[in-house]
UniProtKB/TrEMBL annotation:
Chain ranges of the C2 domain: 1-109
Entries under SUPFAM superfamilies matching the protein: C2 domain (Calcium/lipid-binding domain, CaLB)
Organism this protein belongs to: Forsythia ovata
Protein's recorded name: C2 domain-containing protein
UniProt-listed CDD domains: C2_SRC2_like
Domain of life: Eukaryota
Amino acid sequence: MGCRMFEITLISANDLEVVRKVFKMEVHARVSIGSTPEKRTPTDKHGETNPAWNFTMNYTISESMVQNFNNMVVIKLYCTRMFGDKYIGEVHTSIKELFDLAYPNGGCAVVSFPVLKGSVNSHGGLKLSYKFGERVINF
């Protein structure tokens, strides 16, 4: 069974829903892929509804994750607050979809996704780049 490196960089978000009326919005993202522990970006303290992170996360994923539409990358956006973070919205996409899009370009791409909150229409967008490494065989 093989595996490969997967690198994802959360670049920025734009036109997010305002979820904090009194104080400034400070936004961070949490990324989960399959059963791996959730990873988090630093909090953007200046962009409010247009945060920018340019933060890279690295994962080792199995080749079977790349071949199956059921394995998802889930990115949830939150407004950081002292007494509990406030949910803004999220992006879901399959690893296979990302791989199929990037494969003709040498395994990397820059994409934008709408940020969804439940079944409601999108509130802004999320821009990210990603790169798949070469397949490595485990012994």
